[in-house]
Write a structure and sequence with these properties.
Number of strands: 2
Shape: globular
Distance between the termini: 41 Å
Radius of gyration: 21 Å
Largest sheet: 2 strands, antiparallel
Strand content: under 5%
Structural class: mainly alpha
Order of helices and strands: HHHHHHHHHHHHEHHHEHHH
Strand order of the largest sheet: 1-2
């Protein structure tokens, strides 16, 4: 059996890959220029992404109309959206309507602040009702996220693979969440561009985006880990390669990334602890919601129940298959020796989703930000014949659209 060894290069890559050298002082400008150049190359992929998402939303709109429901009502005013709308309107201390069934009187403390704050700002500037502002933010963020997915995939595998990565991202089982007033679209946008900044060695940009991502979702810790560990490794490698001396400006940028990246997540964690009067207040609030970490025992038990319980649902089957696919694709991704930041980010997301106890029905949504898992599949599509590609994308789009409708119109809990 061939054993795969992981090697980290001075740029923080796995397998010794490294980007073409560029002056550290010009890294930020080069990354910005590269991003806009990427947009010119990404327009076809973004058009396809929008078309595939519109297909899914269109199926949902027809289905919802037959049930007497409006699209805005279904996608922007249900489940977790209610908590973000309440925070945007009333803050963390205001009333919650309807009252929390989980988490108790402090239930809103489980939700990170960036998305509701941004929603409130957009509502104030545009005059839109808060629910419409939240939906608009999510829809715009979903396009920026797709662009970020393209940019990262193109950086690693080229334009053709990036094109198919964006297409697959639009039609994964829980892709409908990209069109809902949820935090996932905004989080993926921040995470993808933070990873792109790391790959471009634009460390200040990476640190700032990681800081904001860390205050957007609990899984922002994955972005923080990717940026901090990559920056530290690059700093160490720079000192080694330069005989104990790294360029001053380069060193300052790397240190700034290490300091900035954790601030968002840490600040919210400390603030919740202060509000609840104990340092682990955030974890206490998570336990009140029924969310803990057990290393995967709960997940394995729920998968085992699929074969023994008579009341298995479509959602449980799809989630179990998604979790299994994520683990397999993570191993495949490792064998391809991606840059360390990409591997760390993806591995931490999978660990959080699989290792968390509670909310089994939402684990596929928790895995939605792990977009690098799609890169091996996108590479396979890039090599496939045109007829194969058409059949795969068409059938997956149809299934994704129907399953999206099931999630919000049939399934009785949060996607």
């Amino acid at each position: 059996m061939t054993q795969t060894r992981i090697r980290a290069g001075s740029d923080g890559s796995v397998g010794g890959r490294r980007a073409a050298p560029r002056p550290a002082a010009k890294a930020s400008g080069a990354a910005a220029g590269g991003a806009w150049a990427s947009l010119r190359r990404a327009w076809a992929a973004l058009v396809l992404h929008a078309a595939l998402r519109l297909a899914g939303v269109g199926v949902l709109a027809v289905w919802a109309h037959h049930k007497g429901l409006g699209l805005h009502e279904v996608l922007a005013t249900r489940w977790d959206s209610l908590f973000y709308l309440s925070i945007a309107e009333n803050g963390y201390t205001g009333p919650m309507e309807p009252a929390c069934q989980l988490g108790g009187p402090t239930c809103k403390l489980a939700f990170f602040p960036v998305y509701p704050w941004l929603t409130r700002g957009v509502s104030a500037v545009t005059g839109l009702p808060v629910s419409w502002a939240a939906w608009a933010v999510a829809l715009l963020a979903s396009l920026i996220a797709a662009w970020g997915v393209f940019a990262v995939a193109e950086k690693l595998h080229g334009t053709r693979v990036a094109f198919f990565a964006v297409a697959l991202y639009a039609i994964v089982p829980h892709a409908l969440v990209q069109s809902m007033a949820y935090t996932e679209p905004l989080f993926v946008a921040l995470a993808a561009w933070s990873l792109y900044a790391v790959l471009s060695r634009s460390w200040l940009t990476a640190g700032v985006l990681a800081m904001v991502a860390g205050a957007t979702r609990p899984s922002g810790s994955a972005v923080v880990a990717a940026v901090v560990l990559s920056a530290l490794w690059t700093l160490l490698a720079s000192f080694r390669s330069r005989g104990g001396s790294a360029g001053r400006r380069h060193t300052v940028r790397l240190c700034a990334a290490v300091v900035l990246a954790p601030l968002g997540w840490t600040a919210f964690f400390v603030w919740v602890g202060h509000r609840l009067g104990r340092w682990d207040g955030y974890f206490i609030e998570q336990r009140a919601w029924g969310s803990t970490f057990d290393g995967g025992r709960y997940t394995l038990e729920q998968i085992r129940r699929l074969f023994t319980a008579p009341d298995t649902t479509l959602n449980q089957v799809v989630v179990a298959l998604t979790v299994a696919a994520a683990v397999i694709l993570l191993i495949v991704l490792l064998t391809q020796r991606p840059p360390a930041a990409v591997w760390i980010y993806t591995a931490v997301l999978v660990l959080i989703a699989v290792g968390g106890a509670g909310f089994f029905h939402s684990k596929a949504r928790f895995l939605l930000p792990a977009f690098p898992l799609l890169f091996p599949l996108a590479a396979a599509l890039a090599r496939a014949r045109c007829t194969t590609v058409v059949w795969v994308l068409a059938s997956a789009t149809a299934l994704s659209a129907l399953y999206g409708g099931y999630l919000v119109l049939v399934w009785h809990r949060s996607p």
